[in-house]
């Protein structure tokens, strides 16, 4: 299967996007017509010389024919000898038969499953018989050719003997007989030195072939890793020095999956075994996690092609089935426990979901430049870009002016492929060492497979590798000096630590502003409202409230978590795992995150000082939005179809909060019960109840009203 079909190059025209004008195309060129050469006739008076020339030409043609036959025979013989090694026999056993067959249809080279061993045994026998039959047929044909040649040209050969004193075809005939003897040896099971070949059992032959194939694959992978600059033992940077780190200290770094180039497939580098090792708990690795996510994205690409004309309910139903098949096995393997042991070294993992973000590279530079301990900072970035692979990238909706009635004139234009912020960062000599050390992990998602921030944040959370703290943020930020140390100290100052979450809406900045210094009073998320927008389907939106002044002795609690910034210990990921069943959603993630965290025993705090700033992006900037991509992918331009999809996905959140029109019975009547798939794992926790949460934040779900939260606005709860 081609790269286009298996999804490694997602936006390649499969969704009827306009073709890129910069893409290369093959063109046919005409060659000049050859002129017919005139041949001068032989002089009749020179008959003896002419006969010699004709005889020489005939002999040369016969020698060429015989050499060609010998070459064909030799190639066939070599194919016979190498037949076992040329067959796709896969690798080690242990993969489920069904998965094996499905992946084989995709063209993958996978380990050989137990159930397929007998099939392979029978196939080997058929191949062996077939190769022997081919060799026998070739041998007979060659003998006939030689015999016919000798009988029909004996007179000419005798004349040659008289002319040259020896038969010029003797060397050719001698080589032909040697070739026949060698082929006979192959058929009789002998080697060139006439020593009997070892008669192997078919199982032994297959095992030997597998071993040789695996060795060849290892060599190819080693060459590929060398090309990409991958090292077997990754090191962490400490200032300008590099300190070795063992597998035991950082299992997620072995083997190191490189952040560049984009679309490098983890399975191609390290083999399918990294997936089975990760799912079986044998040896979970970051490379294995990335391989699982990439396999899902490959199948998502095909899914989107197949359902381009489907209605919204069908798309949602089939998408949930896809998640269940390819992502839920990872969820089940590490339910209620971390994938990697949490290291108590003060390290921080920063989760970044970047949708066609031109500031990603600068955000990374700012984060490392201003960190007190950059050697302890790890980043997991989900880069959702238009890479310009055989399609023309598009802007978002740009405001180009006003019409005569004062209404905005908007336009969507062609544009160059997006800048890869990971590449910008890693190519900067000042920061390259962080990419080489494994502190930057990247998952690349073609724009066509992007379906909103909730999915991107799920992917990014899976790139966590055992770090002490978890920070979720957007990819267009600036950082105050020593932000990492100050946030760590602020979290520890909270009364509920270690089950404390810091969160706020950061202050804004413009790209021309001076370096960010931080220090302003942190915002408090203390209010909410039920949206009246038809697009948002009455979902609860959170907002800011009062302030506590600048001299508070410790952080105090707030009501809600902002998805664009929160900081907590990494145990948060085990207690409140990110939900893979919220595709095409833009609203609703914050109320769901807040409810789930609080009912799982986590208290939410506002940091007393702001240490990061966020670029708030007005529509007039013309930046692309994921819902515009959704419209193009499904052939329905505009946000309308994404709104239909979101209206179904959001019912999962509304059911969680307890909306009166989104009960289990109501969902069944509407045919949307699929949104409750695996809900028990991503709903309210068991430490505190949902009703207690609604009372805690003063939400009347029956009347769809948000009341005043006095304790939050007055900073009364520590």
UniProtKB/TrEMBL annotation:
<feature type="compositionally biased region" description="Low complexity">
    <location>
        <begin position="18"/>
        <end position="32"/>
    </location>
</feature>
<keyword id="KW-0812">Transmembrane</keyword>
<keyword id="KW-0472">Membrane</keyword>
<dbReference type="InterPro" id="IPR021067">
    <property type="entry name" value="Glycosyltransferase"/>
</dbReference>
<dbReference type="InterPro" id="IPR029044">
    <property type="entry name" value="Nucleotide-diphossugar_trans"/>
</dbReference>
<keyword id="KW-0808">Transferase</keyword>
<feature type="coiled-coil region">
    <location>
        <begin position="173"/>
        <end position="226"/>
    </location>
</feature>
<keyword id="KW-1133">Transmembrane helix</keyword>
<feature type="region of interest" description="Disordered">
    <location>
        <begin position="1"/>
        <end position="44"/>
    </location>
</feature>
<dbReference type="GO" id="GO:0033830">
    <property type="term" value="F:Skp1-protein-hydroxyproline N-acetylglucosaminyltransferase activity"/>
</dbReference>
<keyword id="KW-0328">Glycosyltransferase</keyword>
<keyword id="KW-0175">Coiled coil</keyword>
<protein>
    <submittedName>
        <fullName>Glycosyltransferase (GlcNAc)</fullName>
        <ecNumber>2.4.1.229</ecNumber>
    </submittedName>
</protein>
<dbReference type="Pfam" id="PF11397">
    <property type="entry name" value="GlcNAc"/>
</dbReference>
<feature type="transmembrane region" description="Helical">
    <location>
        <begin position="52"/>
        <end position="72"/>
    </location>
</feature>
């Amino acid at each position: 299967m081609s790269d286009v079909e298996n999804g490694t190059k997602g936006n390649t025209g499969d969704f009827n996007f306009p073709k890129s004008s910069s893409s290369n195309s093959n063109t046919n060129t005409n060659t000049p017509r050859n002129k017919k050469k005139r041949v001068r006739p032989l002089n009749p008076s020179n008959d003896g010389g002419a006969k010699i020339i004709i005889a020489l030409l005939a002999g040369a043609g016969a020698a060429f024919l015989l050499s060609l036959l010998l070459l064909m025979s030799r190639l066939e013989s070599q194919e016979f000898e190498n037949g076992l090694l040329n067959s796709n026999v896969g690798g080690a056993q242990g993969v489920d038969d069904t998965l094996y067959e499905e992946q084989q249809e995709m063209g993958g080279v996978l380990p050989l499953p137990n159930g397929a061993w007998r099939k392979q045994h029978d196939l080997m026998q058929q191949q062996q018989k077939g190769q022997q039959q081919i060799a026998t047929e070739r041998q007979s044909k060659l003998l006939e050719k030689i015999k016919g040649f000798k009988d029909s040209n004996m007179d000419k050969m005798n004349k040659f003997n008289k002319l040259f004193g020896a038969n010029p075809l003797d060397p050719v005939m001698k080589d032909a007989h040697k070739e026949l003897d060698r082929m006979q040896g192959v058929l009789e099971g002998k080697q060139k030195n006439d020593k009997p070949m070892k008669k192997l059992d078919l199982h032994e032959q297959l095992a030997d072939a597998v071993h040789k194939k695996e060795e060849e694959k290892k060599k190819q992978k080693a060459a590929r890793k060398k090309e990409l600059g991958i090292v077997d033992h990754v090191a962490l940077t400490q200032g300008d020095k590099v300190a070795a780190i063992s597998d035991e200290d950082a299992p997620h770094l072995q083997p190191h999956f490189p952040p560049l180039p984009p679309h490098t497939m983890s399975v191609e580098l390290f083999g399918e075994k990294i997936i089975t090792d990760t799912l079986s708990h044998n040896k979970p690795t970051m490379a294995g996690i990335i391989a699982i996510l990439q396999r899902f994205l490959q199948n998502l690409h095909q899914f989107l092609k197949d359902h381009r004309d489907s209605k919204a309910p069908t798309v949602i139903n089939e998408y949930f089935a896809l998640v269940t098949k390819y992502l839920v096995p990872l969820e089940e393997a590490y339910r209620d426990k971390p994938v990697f042991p949490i290291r108590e070294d003060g390290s921080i993992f920063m989760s970044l979901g970047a949708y066609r973000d031109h500031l990603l590279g600068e955000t990374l530079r700012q984060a490392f430049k201003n960190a007190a301990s950059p050697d302890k900072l790890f980043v997991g970035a989900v880069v959702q870009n238009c890479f310009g692979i055989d399609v023309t990238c598009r802007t978002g909706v740009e405001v180009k002016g006003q019409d005569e009635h004062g209404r905005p004139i908007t336009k969507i234009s062609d544009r160059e492929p997006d800048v890869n912020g990971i590449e910008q960062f890693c190519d900067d000599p000042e920061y390259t060492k962080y990419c080489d050390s494994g502190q930057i992990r990247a998952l690349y998602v073609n724009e066509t497979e992007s379906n909103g921030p909730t999915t991107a944040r799920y992917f990014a959370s899976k790139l966590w590798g055992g770090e002490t703290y978890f920070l979720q943020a957007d990819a267009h930020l600036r950082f105050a000096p020593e932000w990492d140390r100050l946030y760590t100290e602020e979290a520890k100052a909270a009364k509920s630590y270690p089950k404390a979450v810091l969160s706020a809406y950061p202050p804004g900045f413009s790209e021309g502003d001076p370096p960010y210094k931080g220090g302003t009073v942190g915002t408090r998320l203390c209010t909410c409202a039920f949206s009246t927008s038809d697009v948002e389907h009455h979902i609860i939106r959170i907002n800011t409230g009062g302030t506590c002044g600048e001299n508070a002795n410790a952080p105090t609690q707030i009501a809600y978590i902002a998805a664009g910034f929160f900081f907590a210990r990494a145990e948060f990921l085990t207690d409140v795992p990110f939900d893979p069943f919220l595709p095409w959603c833009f609203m609703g993630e914050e109320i769901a995150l807040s409810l789930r965290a609080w009912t799982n025993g986590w208290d939410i705090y506002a940091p007393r000082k702001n240490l990061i700033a966020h670029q708030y992006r007005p529509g007039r900037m013309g930046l692309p939005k994921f819902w515009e991509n959704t419209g193009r992918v499904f052939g329905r331009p505009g946000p309308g179809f994404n709104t239909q999809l979101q209206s179904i996905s959001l019912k999962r959140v509304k059911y969680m909060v307890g909306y009166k029109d989104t009960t289990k019975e109501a969902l069944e009547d509407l045919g949307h019960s699929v949104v409750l798939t695996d809900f028990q794992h991503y709903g309210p926790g068991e430490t505190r109840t949902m009703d207690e949460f609604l009372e805690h934040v003063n939400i009347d779900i029956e009347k769809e009203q948000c009341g005043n939260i006095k304790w939050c606005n007055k900073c009364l709860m520590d």
